[in-house]
């Protein structure tokens, strides 16, 4: 049976609340995320508190009082290193599903499954029955059935490999709080790309009434109205990057009068033709040479957020850290790989539309 790390009661009261508050503060400061957090301490002070709480929890796991032993003595201990990444993994796993859910509330649903499991989704039809005028002497009209489909998602392994050097560890320059936060943001960014790529790549599979190859005002409103009506009257919103949403404007110069202040302030119109415009944060393709955008600005997605989410995100089990032998390389560095299993798939019974625009 696979064993997982369980935090001590002390950490339940100190480390976990401090970590969650640090994450909220970090995201609010660096990404303008609307999160509430304790304002009595600075972000740097909170980072120090989280690091201290992590060190204490590592000691609890090892039944070792690390405050007495010099850092030089325990930093290269293999068991200490295992406990370190066990705690970090626990903190990462605790936050990632919430971050993905919050950032893609309109689009994605998050599910957690155990190791070796497969996520199976039942897709019920969202269509209504056709009502037919019938004669007095006919018992039946054309029969209709509600079809239910199933689709499975099998998570695949994703890996982040980092490297640290012994001197920085001994000097206390390696912040575990900052490391864990960067891992969370890296995984969230990759999942964000997976989510929006899954929706974008479905453009060719949509029927003619649910896709537009170019923007114009009439087609924009018509697509929004169709998506809303097809989803039982659930109001549709237009989703896209800020650059993409910035192209959704009246074509008539007279109608543009009075929109300049709002447009200049946020970069796009909050509402156009009674359709709310919702921006998704652009991401960077970190494998690119010159910080290329990862999300396509030229696609606008028309969705009804109150219906079933378009994309399913499935996490399998917890994170796994694999480290090289402690600083056995010639330059006293150590590679650590964090493995996380997830899958992303477009699985929904909701109707949606996609419009291409020129940026």
Describe this structure as you would to a colleague.
The protein starts with 8 loop residues before the first helix and ends with a strand. The protein has 359 residues and is an alpha/beta fold. The longest helix is centred in the first third of the chain and has 26 residues, at 78-103. 36% of the residues lie in helices and 21% in strands. The model has no long low-confidence stretch (mean pLDDT 86). It has eleven helices and twelve strands. Helix 2 packs antiparallel against helix 3 (43-62), helix 3 (43-62) crosses helix 5 and helix 5 (78-103) crosses helix 7.
Short description:
The protein is α/β, with parallel strands linked by helices.
Determine the fraction of residues in helical runs and give it as a percent range. 25-40%
Give the quaternary arrangement of the chains.
single chain
Question: What separation lies between the terminal Cα atoms?
Answer: 53 Å
N-to-C series of helices and strands: HHHHHEEEEHHEHEHHHEEEEEE
How much of the sequence lies in strands comes to 15-25%
Low-confidence stretches: none
**Main sheet makeup:** 6 strands, mixed
Let me know the average pLDDT: 86
- Helix/strand structural class: alpha/beta
**What's the Cα radius of gyration?**
25 Å
Secondary structure: number of strands: 12
Form type: elongated
Number of helices: 11
């Amino acid at each position: 049976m696979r064993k997982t790390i369980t935090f001590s009661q002390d950490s339940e009261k100190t480390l976990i609340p401090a970590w969650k508050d640090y994450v909220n503060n970090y995201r609010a400061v660096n990404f303008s995320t609307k999160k509430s957090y304790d304002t009595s301490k600075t972000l740097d002070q909170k980072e120090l508190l989280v690091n201290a709480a992590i060190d204490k929890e590592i000691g609890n796991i090892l039944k070792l009082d690390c405050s007495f032993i010099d850092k030089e003595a325990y930093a290269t201990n293999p068991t200490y290193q295992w406990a370190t990444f066990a705690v970090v993994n626990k903190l990462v796993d605790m936050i990632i599903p919430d971050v993905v859910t919050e950032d893609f509330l309109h689009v994605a649903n998050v599910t957690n499954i155990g190791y070796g499991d497969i996520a199976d989704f039942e897709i019920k039809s969202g269509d209504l029955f056709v009502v037919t005028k019938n004669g007095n002497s006919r018992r039946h009209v054309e029969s209709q059935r509600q079809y239910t489909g199933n689709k499975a998602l099998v998570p695949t392994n994703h890996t982040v490999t980092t490297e640290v050097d012994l001197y920085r560890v001994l000097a206390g320059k390696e912040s575990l709080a900052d490391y864990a936060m960067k891992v969370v943001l890296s995984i969230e960014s990759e999942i964000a790309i997976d989510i929006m790529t899954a929706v974008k790549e479905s453009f060719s599979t949509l029927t003619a009434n649910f896709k537009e190859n170019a923007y114009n005002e009439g087609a924009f409103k018509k697509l929004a109205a169709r998506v809303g009506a097809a989803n039982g009257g659930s109001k549709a919103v237009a989703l896209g990057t800020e650059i993409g949403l910035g192209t959704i404007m009246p074509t008539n110069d007279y109608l543009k009068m009075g929109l300049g202040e709002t447009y200049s302030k946020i970069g796009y119109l909050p509402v156009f033709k009674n359709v709310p415009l919702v921006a998704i944060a652009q991401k960077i393709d970190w494998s690119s040479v010159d910080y290329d955008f990862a999300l396509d600005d030229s696609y606008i997605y028309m969705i009804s957020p109150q219906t079933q989410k378009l994309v399913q995100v499935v996490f399998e089990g917890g994170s796994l850290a694999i480290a090289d032998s402690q600083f056995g390389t010639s330059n006293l560095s150590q590679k650590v790989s964090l493995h996380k299993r997830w899958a992303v798939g477009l699985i929904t019974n909701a109707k949606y539309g996609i419009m291409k625009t020129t940026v």
